[in-house]
Structure formats: C-alpha cells, structure tokens
Protein 1
Amino acid sequence: MDGKKYKLRFCIGLILLLAVVTIPFLTPIQKYLSIPNDIVTVNSRAPIDLPTLGENITINSSNKTVQAAKSNEFYTKESGNSELFYEFAGLPIKKVDVNVLDDIKVVPGGQSIGVQLHTKGVLVVGHHLVNAKNGNTSPGEEADIKVGDVILEINGKEIKKMKDVKPFVEEAGEDKEALDIKLKRGKETINTELKPALDNNEDDYKIGLYIRDSAAGIGTMTFYDPESKKYGALGHVISDMDTKKPIEIHDGSIVRSSVTSIEKGNNGIPGEKQAKFSSEHDKIGNITKNSPFGIFGKLNNDMENGRMKKPMPIALSHEVEEGPAKILTVLDDEKVEEYDVEVVSSVPQKFPATKGMVIKITDKELLNKTGGIVQGMSGSPIIQNGKIIGAVTHVFVNDPTSGYGVHIEWMLQDAGIDIYKEQEETNKAG
C-alpha cells in the first residue's frame, strides 16, 4: 500500500509541476500576465493600447477621464485617476489603475551657457603648512578641519566670501587668541577652535587652509517653462574640482556662452568644448539649486534656440523607446544644431534616479567634429517622437561615442515643475 500511495503522490506532484511550468507559456495566460497593474500617462492625444483577451472579454472605464476608441484602445479626456476593468459576462477579472497627468509642455534648450556659482560659506579644498616659530604646522589640520568642510561662521559672524576670513585671522593672531569656527560637514554641523600661526616667511598670520567661495564652467540649457520661466540645465550636479563633492550654493547665475573650439575626444580621454563668457555681463538667469539632476533657477526672459521655438510635450521614463532620437547642442559660437543619436537602453523609473538612459551618437558630422560626447555637452536635450525625453549627462571614458542620459521628469521635478502634484494630492485625499 505504501508503494502505491507513493506512486500516486509522485504522479500528482509531477502533474502539478508540469502545470506550473507549462501554464505560463499558454497564449491566453501569457496575454493575461502581460496586462499592467497600473498605467501612468499624460493627458495628450496618444492612445493607450491594452492587450486583448478574446471576443468575450470587454474592457470598460470607471469614469470619463479615460474613454474607449476601440475595444482595446483608449484616449485620455482629462487629468485625474481612473480604472479600466477587464470583464467576462459582467464579472471583473482584472483591474488596471490609470493615472492621467497634466500635459506639461516646456521649451527645449540646446544653448551653451556659462555657469557661475557662489558657495554657501567658504569651501575648504586643501591644507598647507605654515613656517611658524616652532616649525612647520597647519593650524587648520590641527583643528580637525577636513577637505570638503564648509566654514559657515567665525566668532559668531556669517562667512559668505573668502575676503570675510582674513580680518578675523589677523585680529585673532595679533591678540594671540583662537577663532571659534562653525563648519558644515555633510549633514553635520561642527564647532571647533583654530589658532592662527605667524608665517615667518611672509610675516603674516595664516590658518593653513586653502579655501574657495565660487566655481565657474560651461554647460547646456535643457528646457524652460514659458510661463514661470523656471529652467533646468546640465542634467548632473556640479562638484568642486578638488574635493569632488557637490557644491552647496549660496547663489549663482547663468550667462550667455559662445563656443570657440572643440577639443576632440579619444578612447580614455573625453573631449571638451572651449567657450568664452563673462560672469558680469549678459546674465540670463539665476541659480537657486544644484542637485544630482542639474542646476535650476529662473530666467530673466524667454530664451530662443533658433530651431524649436514652441513648447514641446515631455515623455515619462516608461514612454521612452529604444531607437532613434535627436539632441540639440552648440558646436560653434551660439548656433544650436540638431544631431542624430540612438537610445540604446532606457530604464522605466518610478522614483528619481540618475543615469536612466544609455545613448549613442550616430550623427556623422557630430562624430567628425567632437568624437562623440564631450564636456560642456551636459544638459543637451534629447528629443524623440516629438517629445523631450531627457538630457545628456555623462560620457563613457572608454567609448566617447556613448554615455548616460537622465529622464526629463526628474529634472522637471527639481525645477519646481511637479508633474505628479495632482496624483499626490489625490492620494492624500484618499
């Protein structure tokens, strides 16, 4: 009996195993599993296509936000939340949540811009030795002040620029007193004491620190909102060249920039745009934010690129397709040109993340002039199917023809253009 029971259990187990393995490969089951649980889209004319499950299965909408055009094709009528139900004989067998966002349109950039940042406090970028009476010493290092720290206050007074530091150092040195330093290290605020040392070589009091209060460079405008004048550029954070840490900004500005030449990139060595700009004149906007997704602020006036003047719709990360696309950028003077690229891969992202796309330059003219993606091209808008899908951000050092891109929705979010606002308010209300 035990042998028969064992054989029976073995046969039942084998049948169940075969069922588990084969059922997902049956066409109806495959189609059912391919139906998404939720869809996020913008309120535009683009249809929502859903898999069909057969003639006896209907798809119905819960409200007027989404309406049917065909049995499996739907159009958005307004922004808001809706539900689509697959029904058999009036009974629901699958529900799809649909969130329709406002159809936000922004003006694409492509212009070369000069960037001038002023740090929040003064940034410590290095230590140096002071030739003091008792030998070489670095007062800053002895005070445990590290590279990357930001000096916020000295003796209770706010420090905004490098020139604010020297009077405190001289006074404390002459009085043989220590300075009370308040600094920021990451998210931490630290207090320490620093006693200046008299440099025998220069007969001047020193603190043994290299400091900086500003940074400058060039990049590319990605987009701006014609109504609010809010803009986004670069597509990545600006870090200090010495500390390699993101710069916390006090304020900043962007100015018009003119590309004078291109240093072509080769394997292992990224190329670079050479450009000129004045930090005092031709200011076109401010900088209020420096984030992993770029720099952001407001323009003083509209900014035309000479090619695409009208606002364009944006594509969400899951709407980006692998295949042909274009970028807008400047290679000569201030002239914005359009170049062919290919989206090699794109990762649908539900939460903000950098490096969402891999792109490859395919345009022969661009490859001939630059060798691929070069420094200064960061922020160049990527256009696909009449929509802005993101911006160029990084180049692959071992392959200058390819690099990363960031999805446009995260840049919009950091610019203060919140495309998910209505969804968040609805969730809170619920």
Note: The helical segments are 2-22, 27-33, 139-142, 165-174, 364-370, 408-414, 421-429.
Protein 2
Amino acid sequence: MRSSTQAMRQRGSFAQNFAVTLSGTTIVAAIGFVLTPIMSRIYPPSSYGQFAVFSSVVGNLNLLTTLGYPGAMLMPKLREHFLALVHLSLLLTVAAIVVLGGLLAFAAEPLRNFLHLEGVGGWLYTIPLLLLLFNLNAIMFTWYTRDKAFTKRVGVDIATTLAGRGFTISYGWRFGGPVTGLILGEFFNRITATVALLYGGIWRNLGELWRSFSWQNIKHVAREYKDFPLYILPAGYVQTVSAQLPVFALTTGFGSTVVGLYSFSVSLLEIPISLIGNAIAPVFAQKAIEVHQNEPERLPVITLDLYYKLLYLGLLPFGAVTVFGDWLFKFVFGARWEAAGLFTAFLGYYYVFKLTSLATSGIYTVYGKQRYQLIANCGNLVARGTGLAIGLYFHDVRIAMMLFGLGSMLGSFLTDLHILYLLRLPVLRIALRSVLLTAGVTGLLYLLRLGIESLHLPFLQ
C-alpha cells in the first residue's frame, strides 16, 4: 500500500499519470451518462442515424489525410524528429483539405443522395473544415501525451465535453432535434478543444515549431517511419471501415432510423471504453515504449497484468448490458430506444475484448510488427462484412447485428491472443481462463434475469 502511495506521488510516474487521466475521463463519462438521457428525448433516432453517417465519412477521411504519421509521434528520441513529424502531418492535412474542398464542389450532391443525407443539407461542404479540426486535435493530443502533460489534457477533455453537450442540447431544445444540432455540437466541441489545447501550453512552442522547419528532417522521418503509412494506416483504415460497416449497410438496407438506434447503442457502449481507454492508452503506450527500450523483459509482465485487470473490469458491466440491455434502454431513455438495447445485447461481449485490447493493441507497434495488425484487421473486416451480408440477404436486422457482434468478438479476442503469443506468454491457459470467466458471468446474469422475469414486475411489461 505504501509503495503504491509513493508511486502515486512521484511526479511523472505511470501510477500518477494513470490516476490523473482516469479521474478526468471518469468525469467526462459521468457527464455523458447524465446528459445522454436528455439528448435521447430531444433528438430522434433518424437524426442520430444521419449524424452517424456524416461522422463516418469524416472519420474515414481523418485517417487517410495524415497517412498515419501522428501515430509515430511518441517514437522519436530526438525532439527535432518529433517536430518534423508534426510538420509532415500538418502539410498532409493542408494538402488534403484543399483537394477535398475541390472534390466536394462537384461531388457533394451525388454523395448526399447516395448516403441519404438530405437532412444534412449544405453542411456537407463543411467536411474539410471539420477534418482540419479533427487532425489538429489529434496532433496536439499526441503532443501532450509525449510531454506527459496529462493534467492539462484532462482539463481540456472535461471542458470540451461540457461545451459540446451543452450546445447540442440547447440547439436541439430550441429547434426540435434536427441533425444540424448534432453537427453543430461536434463543431463546437472541436473548436473548443483546439483553442484549449493551443492555449494550454502548445502556443509557447509555436516559435520553435516554425524555426525548426526542415525539408531534410521531414524527408528523414517520412522514410524512417514508413511502416506507419505502409502498415499502420491500412490497418487503421480497415479497422475503421469494419467498425463503420453497420452504419453504411444498415442505411442501405433498413433506413436512417435503424442506423440511429445502432449508433446510439454504440455511443453508450463507447463511453466506458473511452473512459478507460483515454486513461490507459496514452499512459500505457508511453510506458510500453519506455520499458521495451530499457527493460524489455518486463513488457510481457505488465501487459498481461493489465489485460487481466481490464477483463475483470469489463465482464460485469458489459455482461449486464448484454443481458439486460432492452430493459435498461426502455427505462432510462424511453420506449422509442428499446430496440437500441437489443443491439447492445449483440455487441456487449465484443466490448469486453475491445477493452482488453487496450493492453495489447500497441505491442505490434512497439515490436515493429505492424503488418500483423493489418492482417488482423482485414480478418475482422471479412468476418463482420460476412455477418452483415447474411443479415441483409434475409432482410433481418437482428441476424445482421448478432453475426456482426459475434465476428467482432472473435476477431478481437484472437488478435489479443496473438499479441500475447508474441510476448511469449502461455496463450492456451490465458484463453481458457478468459472463456470460462466470460461464460460463468453470463450464466449468472441470465439466471438473474429469469428470476426477475418470474416476478412479473409492471415496469418490465
């Protein structure tokens, strides 16, 4: 206990950084949980559906425009190489938004009709601006992580969440919940984050950033970290596309209301993932690189320890959402969102292993095995796409989402096991333990549901 307290007090330690980010992301998650029921009564599923498609388009472009180089910013030991990566990412972003702006001048209308984004209207033309804000946020967040400025980053997260949600609720309340309110809320969130990150300390480095510009250094880091556009970018893009498959598939097969139900359920499942992920991912990524460089024999130990802690942490809440999702959504968010609870039932256990992947996902990069990440993500894409295609063929959204959730869960779990295998850990024993724990918790929760159903409570009818 004393050693843990000392580690918490040690400036810049893993324990202190984790405690700071966890406390901040807990506040952010609490804000989301408190305000989401309000938003669900203002914005209908159709608005959520169109916003999900709009956001998916921006998310796809966000990955492509920087070629994955921001992901390398934690790697360089020399500051001049880090700054060169910042320069490279900014140049790629500016070039991309210029090209995209020209393309939208000709393709916006066909794109709007194809994706059924009639409610978005002229806001489709603002995608380049939103993309610029997304990329600036990503670059500055990584800068804060590299400098271990976790306290400042937490403050920005809290402020932007409050500002964005507050604006979205106010606009929706005033104008009746159109998709425009969700889009403007996202803009307000990103602008607030950009200003806060800049004036939180990065503005002091702008002179250094300007003076250090060097085409020679930019070319050097582009070659040195070429694995990021060659492997990390395709892997990240495939992962993004596979996660967004339901948005586009459900839009085509079942309409924007079903997409809204799906995106709403996923947004709630992502809250604890973001809560824990934003606390752990940046801190553990920095720690894993440091340990691999200085004490490589410790990396398997700390990775497995974190894997088990995340598994234990995720089993009960995600298991409860899986078993009781329809009841929870109907009671908390209203009857029109009950079907969204059924979607969470099909996705709950995938999110258990998405949570454990926070301990493993960065190891491919640390070991220089990025090609395996690409292979794993391609496998997930095929599994998810096949499940959705079967559901579309039978025109049954439940089959589509059940198979999508099953494919996602298996893909994430098998990827975890492969990474643990690379760390030379006992994979079969770890897999058996994980499966037995998952099955045991699921069985107990289903027995509990059967017992509650036997009581015939009025609010469950």
Note: The radius of gyration is 22 Å.
